[in-house]
Design a protein that fits this description.
The complex is a heterodimer of chains A (about 250) and B (about 130). Chain A has about 250 residues and is mainly α. Helices cover about 70% and strands about 0% of the residues of chain A. Chain B is globular. The chains are: A mainly alpha (about 250), B alpha+beta (about 130).
Chain lengths: ~250, ~130
Amino acid sequence: MAEQEERLVDEERSVELFARLPKEPSAREDLVRLHYPLVEYLARRFAGRGEPVEDLVQVASIGLLKAIDRFDTERGVKFSTYATPTIIGELKRHFRDKGWAMRVPRRLQEIGLQLSRVVSEMFQELGRSPTVPEIAARSGLSEDDVLEGMDAIHVHSIGSLDAPTDEDGGTSASRLGAEDETFELLEGWASVAPHLEKLPERERSILYLRFFRGLTQSQIAERLGISQMHVSRILSRTLSVLRDAVGAGEG
Amino acid sequence: MSDVNVKVPARPNFVHIFRSVIASIAASADFTYDEIDDLRLAVDEACAQLLVVGGDATTLSMLIRNLDGGGVEILTSIDAEGAPWPPAGAEHTLTWQVLSALADEARFEQMDGHPALRLTKRRVPAGAN
């Protein structure tokens, strides 16, 4: 297995980029690009568990960025060898946190996955989000199934997820194309600002784009290259985390 | 369609019933998937805000009316007596910002002397945007 993973990456180029990294921040982008095949390969190993592949690739990319930031070139280990467990760890954490594959019946998992795909395909074609009758007509699901699938997508154990103290710190989101102009978000809301600052950057960006910039969930999904389902879950989860945090602070 | 009125115990673990109800009504009112998801989120946020001032409350209510010309009006309320409502600086809270982004209109109101939140969302006919 290890050999196969190493073949995905040009190790010489990787060493060269890591040597340049301290003086050239742009080398980080090149490292991300260079190791993308590894990210994709590992993400695909987790496919078929009820999560869209594009979301898994995004989760795996966060693992890659963590590995790049923590890698110590002095240790004499190949980067791909070092990064693989970090990336797999991130993917496993994703499933553990979502708890979705474990708690939702197989039939609803499949509906959820189909729903996620059809919603994004139809957004591309129509230039707007589809209605439930339109989704039903396209997918062959009944309208009740669509609504049931929507419910199932949101089954998660609130609170345990991507807690604001996440060591991730979200150093990664802006590199993945998210916005970091969340100043306005922090400025206006004094009572929540300290909690907003503790959110991973990806969560904060999605919150900002939806509630301050007025982008729709599908537009945000398109911009970040993830599914609408992922955006939807992040929004509901983040609001819940913030409510708990603010509530706890005020007693 | 007629008004829909749902009442549940004033506890967070019953709010999911409201989410399913609003999703079902919004779907038959021809809202898009994104808008239905937004309405679910808005109801969640509104109920959380009401439950904060809940105190001795026993019942959380949601009244949904279909608007002429397409859209829905959602009135959520809680039977809390003498709660400070609207909360101080209500229109400078994240809740209000969130509700205003998710619905066309969000208003803190009193209903029979009880705290209430009124949300209005009109439907833009599919294809018009």
